[in-house]
Hints:
Membrane topology: Multi-pass membrane protein
Mean pLDDT: 86
Largest sheet: 2 strands, antiparallel
GO cellular component, one term: plasma membrane
Domain Phosphotransferase system EIIC: 3-301
Keywords: Cell membrane, Membrane, Sugar transport, Transmembrane, Transmembrane helix, Transport
Strand order of the largest sheet: 1-2
Order of helices and strands: HHHEEHHHHHHHHHH
Protein name: Phosphotransferase system EIIC domain-containing protein
Number of helices: 13
Amino acid sequence: MLETVFQLVMIIQSFMAFIIGVLAAHQFKFNGAGSCMVGIAAMLGSGAVQFTAKGIVLKGIGDIINIILVVIIACAIYMFLQGKLGSLEMIILPVVIPVLSALIGLLTLPYVQTITKGLGHMVNSFTDLNPLIMSILISVTFSLLMVTPISLVAIATAISLTGLGSGAANMGIVAACVTFIFGSIRVNSMGVNIVLLIGAAKMMIPVYLKHLIIAVPLTLNGIVSGVLAYAIGIKGTPLSAGFGYTGLVGPINAFNRMSGDATIIIILLVFGYFVIPFVSAFIIHEICKKLIPSYHDGIYKFEIPKQ
């Protein structure tokens, strides 16, 4: 049952590029058809859709940077051609926009992935060190990269990050999520906080890039999470490494790879993924506010674009 839930969640995650494309098009006030065209282009050019001898397969969520590039191209083409083709618009645009944008995306994908893989090899080099140090370094790295356009799933799959390394990466995502939850809870709306609680910390990229001081609690929480991953023995797969507790992908994978009494394992995972990270994040947040003058709740304010 848990494995089925995990598989369904992974399928949903694989459509991330399509969702990004549709939402981006919506910001430009595109109609439903136009939004779908951009979404399809993003999906095809993301790298998540792969063609094999056995057919079409979905692999990960694609490269976020390349998705952004494809979405920009697709939106530009749509705005350029909209209203210029008359009655042929609904015949030509649904083909031209996804195909042309995706083709450009597939051409740029290898070069963009080179950057991603470079970061990945740096992370993978940590595995040659002491397991505890490795866990901390990977957790901190993934915590800091979580709120950037870099695709963590792409990094993990590119270097086949498995076992304890995957578990540490997974806990790094948890560290990023809890950091932003406690920073946001007093200054943002309930909707924003709920989204963060679910685990979608990437929405805070603009906040993080504007206030890099947030890297301090991200690092500290990453250290705590790295120690937890090592102490509990959290393990995972390349695909689960970049999801944290979102959709329970991380906990389910860890549960399937831990031996012993199921009840004890569940208790350990509850404490490892939820209790200790949340408590430590609250403490670290309060300490940082007292010790760092430029660090306060206000820097976590998320500005929702006006429609």
